[in-house]
Structure formats: C-alpha cells, structure tokens
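Case 341 in the screening queue. Each case pairs one protein sequence with one candidate compound; here the compound is magnesium ion. For every case the pipeline is the same: read the inputs, emit a complex structure as tokens, and attach any notable structural observations.

Predict complex for case 341.
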Amino acid sequence: MATPAIDRQHVGGERDLASEPSRRRLVSYVLPVYNEADGIREFHSRLVAATRARPDLDFQFVYVNDGSRDGSLEILRELAASCEAVKVLDLSRNFGHQMAITAGLDSADGDAVIVMDTDLQDPPEVSLELISAWESGAQIVYAQRRTRKDTAVKRLTAHAYYRVLRRFADIDIPVDTGDFRLMDRTTTDLLRSHRERNRFVRGLVASLGFEQVAVPFNRDERVAGSTHYPLTKMLRLAADGVTSFSTVPLKLITRLGVATVVLALLGIVYALVIRLFLPEISVPGWTLLMIMVLFLGGVQMLSLGVIGSYVGRIYTEVQARPLYIVQEVVGRGHGGERAQE
Ligand code: UDP
Ligand code: MG
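Case 341 output:
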C-alpha cells in the first residue's frame, strides 16, 4: 500500500510561532508498536485522514517501536520520511506496552497527548471526540469500551478483572477502560513524574485525580495479526494493577496470621485437655508435638503479617509518588507575593 500523501499545511511537526499571533494548539499521539507491520500503514493513513477534520490544530505522531521483529521499524522510518509530523522512538528491545507508552509520553510535546493502540482497535475517529471533550474543559478524557470484539475468554476475563480491581484498589479505576485516553499538558507532566518500574499506566492516571471524563466507544477487531497480550502477559499486567494500587494481598496475610494463632490456641487447649483428662487415649509425646507445631505455625504466620505490613510501607515509599497534587490555588493569602513567584 502506498504511503499516504500528507497535507503539510496542518499536519506539521514544526510550528511557526512568530507568524501566528494566537498559537495553534498541538495534539500529540503516543502510539506503541510491537510487530504491527501488517497493519501500521493502514493505521497511519486512517489516523491522518481522521485528523484532517481538524485543520485548526497541529498534530504530532510519536510512534514507539517496542522492539518489533517484523520490519515495523522500516515502515515507521518510511512514514517519518514522508510525513514530518511523525517522530519514531526505537526502543532497544521489547520493554512491554506500558513502558512503550511511558517512553512516548516522555517525548510528546503536545498541549494534549492521546495514547492509543496501533492495531486499529481504538478507532482514530474517536480520538477527535476526546479532543472535543478536552476543548470543553476536561483535563483527562478516557475512552470507555461500550462493546469489544475480542474472543469470549478475553471479554470475560477483562470484564471480571476490571471489577475485581475496582474492589481491591485504593483508587477509583474506571471499568472497561484501556490506555486509550487524552491528557492535557499538566496531567501528562504529573503522570511523567511517576517513575515506578512495574507500572499500570491507566491506574496511575486514575490516581492523579482531576475531573476525568468518559467518552464511550465501540472497540473494533484487530486489523492484522493477533494480540500481543497472551495469557502470561495479561496476568502480569493484572498483577501489576492489583499490586500497584492495593496492599490487600499483604493484609490478607496478616488476617491469615491472626486466624492461625486463634486456631493454634484452640488446638493447644484441645491437646492439653486430652493429656490431662483423657489419659487413656493420649499418645505419649503427642501433646508436646502438637503444642510446638501449632505455636510455631501461628507465630510464623503472624510474623509474616507484621513483616508484610512493613514491606507494604516500604513499597509505597519506594514508589515515591507525589504526596498530593494541587489542582488550583485560589487567592494569595497574606504575604502571598513570595509564594506566587
Ligand atoms: N504493544 C507494545 N508492546 C508489547 C505489546 C503490545 O507496544 O509488548 C502495543 C501493540 O503494538 C498495540 C498495543 O500495544 O499497539 C496493544 O497491544 P495488543 O493489541 O496486542 O493488546 P490487546 O488489544 O489485545 O489488549
Ligand atoms: Mg489490540
């Protein structure tokens, strides 16, 4: 398929600020690519065609090649050569979807940044609706799947997962929402200040706060190839989601510890009763053995719980997230001159 001709008038990477009194706004797309050679050209031409509907905006397309092994990079190079709005980041190996997004966010320059998949499951036309919501004042706009055309297993597990996560996580993660979303400059920069390693980007965005607006859409089928989220990767992402935003698993250990100690005490009382009052069925040595096993088991479980609660604290400290985010300061208060500088 031929590379689409690009209208350079509005799809321009370079902005001529001097000649324009009111600066045109730039919208960046962050586009992770992993082995998408069969569909990426079609994706790009559809995206460019969609953005033509907004000649009043400038666009930047940041493709992040996440260690593809199928010639995706060569195609991306061609796209960059024929379209100056394209910027390609080539990662040295496959770092995974969430890291690819992070790399793209770090190098996107837009006043608003849109993250979307490059397999046409997130329709490029929907991104224009995200832009409209941003223009009406929203700082974070997420695209929420009304329907999705995946296999029954994927649909079922995804459905269950989002609901379990919502129950366990300390923050309100919107259900049926992937990484397809728009963030303005402020929230993008805030997200970039989160540098934790095992990242669950959609959870981090949810934890930023601000007014978050949902735009419903119908998720399409993949144009080419098959999912790069096999069960193992999906489970890892799911685990990252739960462990990044909740210490419920650690708390469960503590509860298990308390329950074990209570049961151990009952068991010890039982062993003693048999030893003292029913000597005829008591086996020599059994009482001491029971007491020791139950006592040690209980103490170990409880200790694990205590250690777990410290590990939980260390974990949240290490994540080094901002303590709080101030959305707006109203008024200056006395002596505010200094604070406003
Ligand atoms: N992707 C990536 N690195 C990976 C896996 C996937 O950059 O290790 C990209 C992929 O090219 C696509 C997006 O992430 O643009 C979503 O991946 P996929 O479509 O395989 O996931 P699914 O839609 O099945 O959840
Ligand atoms: Mg997909």
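Case 341 observations:
- The beta strands are 26-33, 58-65, 86-90, 112-115, 140-148, 177-184, 212-219.
- DSSP finds eleven helices and seven strands in the chain.
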